Amino acid sequence: MKKMLATTALVALMATPVSAASPSDRSENTVYMMTVTTVGAADTQGYLASNVMGRTVYASNAEDAEAVGDVNDIVIGSDGSLQAVILGVGGFIGMGEKPVAISAEQVEFYEGNWGEIYVLVPYTSAELEGAKSYDAEAYKAEQNTVLLTPKS
User: Fold this and answer.
1) How many CB atoms are located within 10 Å of the residue 67 CB?
2) In the chain, where the domains are located
3) Cβ burial, residue 119 (10 Å; 0-12/13-18/19+)
4) What does DSSP say about strands 67-76 and 56-58: parallel, antiparallel, or unpaired?
5) CA torsion 7→10→16→20, rounded to 10°?
6) What is the C-alpha to C-alpha distance for residues 38 and 17, in angstroms, rounded to an integer?
7) pLDDT per residue rounded down to tens, the chain (152 residues)
8) Which residues make beta-bridge pairs with 56?
9) What span, in angstroms and rounded, lies between the C-alpha atoms of 111 and 43?
10) Burial of residue 86, with CB atoms counted within 10 A of its CB: 0-12 exposed, 13-18 middle, 19 or more buried
11) Which CATH class for the 48-148 domain?
12) pLDDT in the model for residue 69
């Protein structure tokens, strides 16, 4: 009996006419196609931030150049450009150092003979220690007064 009821129900479903929605009844589905553009190694020039972070910063590229600090952070603008490099200056073994923001145009990256990266700035350690400390909130509010810009 159960088998006969199931068969009857199946036949009834198959015999029911299928109605198709008219074009005005259908909702329009939009399909968006996106192309992802990637960059290969051959198309890039520069240095990875991970290879610059923590590097010692020197006052020049001379053999006896003064070490003036180390790279603590990098500030990237909303347009994707490098805005500033945050140096840790003063202190001893990372203790007691203060952060100083250097304008990106003042920072030079130099590659040594064996591929090592050197970071150079046109300031002495005394000048950097005398500079205003970097404060992220103050930087957002008043970039020009917190950022060390080119010497006149």
Assistant:
1) 10
2) 48-148
3) buried
4) antiparallel
5) -170
6) 51
7) 445 444 444 445 455 555 455 555 555 666 666 676 666 666 667 777 888 889 999 998 888 999 999 999 998 888 888 889 999 998 776 678 899 999 999 999 888 888 888 899 999 999 999 888 888 777 666 655 555 555 55
8) 70
9) 19
10) middle
11) mainly beta
12) 92
- Best CA proximity match to 46, nearest among 107, 113, 101, 88: 107
Supply the pTM of this predicted model.
0.64
The two three-digit tokens of residue 122, written as one number: 């046109």
Among residues 62, 57, 51, 48, the alpha carbon closest in space to that of 101 is found at 57
Alpha carbon dihedral 125, 119, 107, 53, in 10-degree steps, equals -100
**Taking a C-beta distance cutoff of 8 angstroms, is the pair 129, 148 a contact?**
no
